[in-house]
Write a structure and sequence with these properties.
The complex is a heterodimer. Helix content of chain A is about 0%, strand content about 55%. By secondary structure, chain A is an all-beta fold. Chain A has one domain: Sandwich (Immunoglobulin-like), CATH 2.60.40.10. In chain A, a hairpin with a 4-residue loop joins strand 7 and strand 8. Chain B has a single domain, classed as Immunoglobulin-like, CATH 2.60.40.10. Chain B starts with a strand and ends with a strand. The model of chain B has no long low-confidence stretch (mean pLDDT about 95). Classes of the chains: A mainly beta, B mainly beta.
């Protein structure tokens, strides 16, 4: 299975601190994406990093990808209470648009 | 522009019944995917349709079926419902290209009693 797995399963931090979550996967990928989900509803796309990229930034988000270790990390800087959500990595795209999601990291940002 | 819309938002069924979930993709998107998300887990891929043809199927029993219509909207059907089918069913659409980002709807919460 290509399924990505996030680590840690849960993370609790204070507002203003940085949050780092990791994702590991098993097979070669076309790209890796990170999504956020609030309150068990629809997922929102955060950032996409392609297999030939090593780092990407978007606002307070920084994503790294190490294809040799089959791992990625998502860093949220200067976290806010509104960042409280579950974060998922998704791998795949080799087979058209079939993606595999991990079980997610549940982030709690305390005000 | 409207995002991905799903209906209904909530549904309660009993074991053995059949259910149909509906999804309208973002205008211009030709690909629709369906995912099942059980509480506490990540979404699991069920089906993907592109240009009205099935392009991918996940590890789900034949009780699950789907189709895509000429206007690119889609339906997911589940027959002979089991308690374990209780989950959030998510529809996602994508524009052109392989492996591009998914735009998700808010999902249909299915409860099987």
């Amino acid at each position: 299975s290509q399924q990505g797995e996030e680590d840690p399963q849960a993370l609790s931090i204070q507002e203003g601190e940085n949050a780092t979550m990791n994702c590991s996967y098993k097979t070669s990928i076309n790209n890796l994406q990170w999504y956020r989900q609030n309150s068990g509803r629809g997922l929102v796309h955060l950032i996409l990093i392609r297999s030939n990229e090593r780092e990407k930034h978007s606002g307070r988000l920084r994503v790294t990808l190490d294809t040799s270790k089959k791992s990625s990390s998502l860093l949220i800087t200067a976290s806010r209470a509104a960042d409280t959500a579950s974060y998922f990595c998704a791998t795949g795209g080799n087979n058209f648009n079939k993606f595999y999601f991990g079980s997610g990291t549940k982030l709690n940002v305390k005000p | 522009d409207a995002g991905v819309t799903q209906s209904p938002t909530h549904l309660i069924k009993t074991r053995g019944q059949q259910v149909t979930l509906r999804c309208s993709p973002i205008s211009g998107h030709k690909s629709v995917s369906w995912y099942q998300q059980v509480l506490g887990q990540g979404p699991q891929f069920i089906f993907q349709y592109y240009e009205k043809e099935e392009r991918g199927r996940g590890n789900f029993p034949d009780r699950f079926s789907a189709r895509q219509f000429p206007n690119y909207s889609s339906e997911l059907n589940v027959n002979a419902l089991l308690l374990g089918d209780s989950a959030l069913y998510l529809c996602a659409s994508t524009g052109q290209g392989v492996g591009e980002k998914l735009f998700f709807g808010s999902g249909t919460q299915l409860s099987v009693l």
